[in-house]
Amino acid sequence: MSHPLNRRQFIKQTGSAALGLTLLSGFKRKVAPSDRLRVAHIGLGGMGTQHLKWFANLPEVEIAALCDLDETHLAAAKNTLLGIQPQSQVQTYSDFRRILERKDIDAVTCATPDHWHAQVAILAFEAGKDVYGEKPLSFNVREGQKMLKSLKRHNRIFQLGTQIHAGDNYHRVVEIIRSGAIGNVHTVRLFKPGAPPILGPANYQEPPSTLNWDFWLGPAPYSKYTPERCHFNYRYFLDYSGGVFQDFWCHIADVVWWALNPQNLQSVSAKGEVSEGIGDTPKWINVDYQFEGLKIHWTTAPPDVPGAAGKDIGAYFEGDKGTLLCDYNTREITIG
Fold it and tell me: How far apart are CA 307 and CA 13, in angstroms?
């Protein structure tokens, strides 16, 4: 005999695989309206629209509200939802705080630029909402610590949007490392080739009438509007994000923390070069971390190890019995 999940159980038990991967294609069953989770989506650019599509295909979910500071994004997202659910009565907002005032909304997703992640999540926790937040967790460590403190204080649930975490490959890598197949791992080399685009010169102008630029800036320092700083390109400005490193570190470092749980950080050293153009995130960056019994190295160029050349991203585990090289979808073990 099956028992329908209540809202709280659904949030706890739904993983990234159910949200965004291929399981959705055949996942259709009827759910009583009283057992449906009412979700609002905040930030509706590329990833925000993906959130919308994933949740709209879950029968346990009702999309109750959409929010974006750009009217063109908001209109496009509503049309996307209506293409999936033609009968939807979703409401739209330009100010996410109006969503948090609604007592009928159970959870929100957040896919804003990085400098808004912590503010949205903390205010959502305070309003009694659970949160599915796109990576990175926050703009900086201090903001992440404040998120955790607020989550615990208000007894909320948070899930980070690193969808690769739910794939089979990372699960298998973690099992292999934890099994001791390559022995005690003493070094991990992480890498992500590629430089940010060269942006500029800055084309300063009045913001479009469809975009609330002041609200978009939010907690970031004031800047006159230029299209080169906004939307997708925000990630190449340190006022809002951290470039290629911040964009991809969490994806590939995830498997390292999952498999090894590094402890007692002792030192961090880094060197790099500022990007050309008006963007100010690193053109390249190398970072060395020393934990208790474990070294982790991040490089922009692939390390000089077997199999790394030509990969778009990777993690190379070095143990006293062998090595393991993985990316999002593949893994290769060498023993001896």
Answer: 37
- Single-letter amino acid code for the residue at 267: S
pLDDT tens-digit map of 189-243: 999 999 999 999 999 999 999 999 999 999 999 999 999 999 999 999 999 999 9
Q: Does an H or E element contain 67, and which?
A: strand 61-67
Q: Taking each helix axis as running N to C, give the angle between helix 46-56 and helix 71-84, from 0 to 180 degrees, rounded to the nearest 10.
A: 20
Cβ distance 66 to 30 under 8 Å?
no
Q: What is the pLDDT of residues 133-185, one digit of tens each?
A: 999 999 999 999 999 999 999 999 999 998 899 999 999 999 999 999 999 99
Whole-angstrom Cα distance, residue 216 to residue 236? 16
For CATH 3.40.50.720, list the domain ranges present in the chain: 7-164
Whole-structure pTM value: 0.89
> How is domain 167-196+242-335 classified at the architecture level of CATH?
2-Layer Sandwich (3.30)
Class of 7-164 in CATH: alpha beta
Alpha carbon distance 302, 288 (integer Å): 15
Query: Given CA atoms 82, 84, 87, 92 in this order, what sign does their dihedral have?
Result: negative
Say how far apart CA 55 and CA 66 lie, in whole Å: 12
CB atoms within 10 A of CB 270: 12
